Amino acid sequence: MSASRALRIGTRASALALWQARDVAARIAAQPGAPGVELVHIHTSGDLQTELPLWQARGRAFFTREIDRALLADEVDIAVHSLKDLPTQLEAGVALAALLPRADPRDALVSRSGATLAALPAGTRIGTSSLRRRAFLARLRPDAMLLELRGNVPTRIERLQRGDYDAVVLAAAGLERLGLAQHVSEYLPAESLPPAVSQGVIGVCARSGDEATLRWLAGLDEREARLAATAERSLLRRLEGGCQVPLGALATLRGDTLGLMASVCALDGTRYLAARAQGPATTTAAEALGVRVAEELLARGAGELMAALREAHPVEEP
Length: 318
Fold this sequence. Notes:
With 318 residues, this protein is α/β, with parallel strands linked by helices. It has helices spanning 15-29, 45-48, 65-72, 131-140, 153-161, 172-177, 211-218, 223-239, 283-299, 302-312; strands spanning 7-11, 37-41, 78-82, 94-99, 107-111, 125-128, 145-148, 167-171, 186-188, 202-207, 247-254, 257-265, 272-280.
């Protein structure tokens, strides 16, 4: 890339994706001598297949594959993703160059009445596109009717308001970034509804050999987000699960100690496994911490639980 050319940022065109891309652009522009930045809108499989339930989607890069391939084809210089959408195995030649400071990792309940999850009436209709949320909600509210919900964040709120659902569950980070936090009825505790791996973290990718671009991204990488994401993604990689697996996890940094809690839940909520551990706050130790918690879950039967789910809801690579 020539020094005078603007950095091209590949992004989805949804309101949340554009917020994330603009945040990255602003952080780059704030650096002395930074090049110009332009956004390039890219449609992904997830944007095109809007009626397909996410758990039926083929492959594990439903919202990221096309952007990363544009990166490798030199059509863009930077790819911006919600890290929870990014597979733990990146495309060859793609580097996860920066992780931005994590927003609130929790899920949030938005209900038409303003009621909390516990206060919603029996048989309440809750919308979500996530197998993880469906499983843990089935455990917390076995009487609820869990319905599929697709669309971007504003669309989901609109569908709730027009009466398609009594409540929906969304990532708190997305609601806050879009200025929609006033709709939140309850922030759901991570202990009872653990968040998706890396939820709330924005991941910034570049070509692994593009030193000129990597130089501008290096200063954006935040240590706490990197440590937490490393532990959580290591856990996910060891369990060999994609984003549509009823696994929740959260790593937290306390001083020089990194803690990791993780849970797996059967889709009907009847079986629940949990594990936690802690270790030193280094990248190598974070990687090992994820593996250690995954091994504990596997020893308790997580492999069989997830295998049964994959058999019932097969998700194939393209």
